[in-house]
Amino acid sequence: MSRRGSPSIVFAFGLMAMVLGSGPSFAQVTPIVAVPDTKLAPTGEPAPFITDVNWRFAGSVGGSKTSGNSKSSTVNLSGEAVRTTDSSKLNIAVRGLYAEANDNRTGANIAFSSQYDLDFSRVWFGFGKLDLLRDHPANIHLRQSAYGGLGYHVVRTSDHSWDLTGGLGYTEDQYVRPANVGGTLRQDYGRVEGVLSESSTHKVTETTSLRQKIGVFPNLKNSGEYRVVVDTGLSVAINSALSLTAGITYRYDSDPGVGIKKVDSIYVTGIGVKWD
């Protein structure tokens, strides 16, 4: 399959275009560490539809470097933009990591995600989601995924939220090197996937926020194969603009290709900044 003419690219962006065109505004996704604020009802009360229509932005940067008997360096970056209205939210997030040890590359990936949620009622909403991933050490030149489905707001207060979502989508992997996946040597691999996920945010104290998201993506083309993605993030405010951040990302692929490990995990720390 030619990468330039890949129908899944057209499909992914076409799906997002249809979703974004179905409502007057935009919706939510869970990033790893950068956490823009939103205005909700007082603690313990059901939240009304969000009325903040301003864009909000956040970013985080971290890194380390050693020299001498061991030589290593790492840098991680993340950024997020959120726009909310009375019945919807758009979240766009990007993050990247690069690591070297003794002049050998040990990590290099960049991930983009966007999600649009449109409320049908105070508890039910529809969503459209687009994810892109580039991770050469994991033999992924480009993974592109587009999903759509329904969600349910289980908890929605000023200090805590918890959402459940489910739907269908399409994922295509383009490999750095041909990979033996599903019993066949392939340069790329497209398939229909289901998506089941839960996500929550928690205001632990006045200065500490926690959020997590778990997504399970069963392969509907090859029964029994699936992917799992877990994202967690902790933010401790220094002042109204700056915060200390930490995040863990865990990815599991039951069939990544012969010779490729099934699990990838990333732990990052940094300094975050947010502004309106």
Give structural notes.
With 276 residues, the chain is mainly β. It has a single domain (7-275), classed as Beta Barrel (Porin). It contains 1 helix and 12 strands. Strand 8 and strand 9 (208-218) form a beta hairpin. The model is unreliable at 1-5 and 7-51 (pLDDT under 50).
* Strand count: 12
Order of helices and strands: HEEEEEEEEEEEE
The radius of gyration is: 19 Å
In the CATH hierarchy, what is the architecture at level 2?
A: Beta Barrel
What does the oligomeric state look like here? single chain
The CATH topology is Porin
The CATH class is identified as Mainly Beta
Main sheet properties: 12 strands, antiparallel, barrel
Helicity, in percent? under 10%
Which terms would index this structure?
276 residues, 12-stranded antiparallel β-barrel, mainly beta, disordered N terminus, single chain, Porin
Write the layout of secondary structure elements.
Layout: H1 7-20, E1 55-66, E2 72-84, E3 88-101, E4 104-119, E5 124-135, E6 140-156, E7 160-181, E8 184-203, E9 208-218, E10 226-237, E11 242-253, E12 263-275
Antiparallel strand pairs: 1-2, 1-12, 2-3, 3-4, 4-5, 5-6, 6-7, 7-8, 8-9, 9-10, 10-11, 11-12
In short:
The chain is mostly beta strands and 276 residues long.
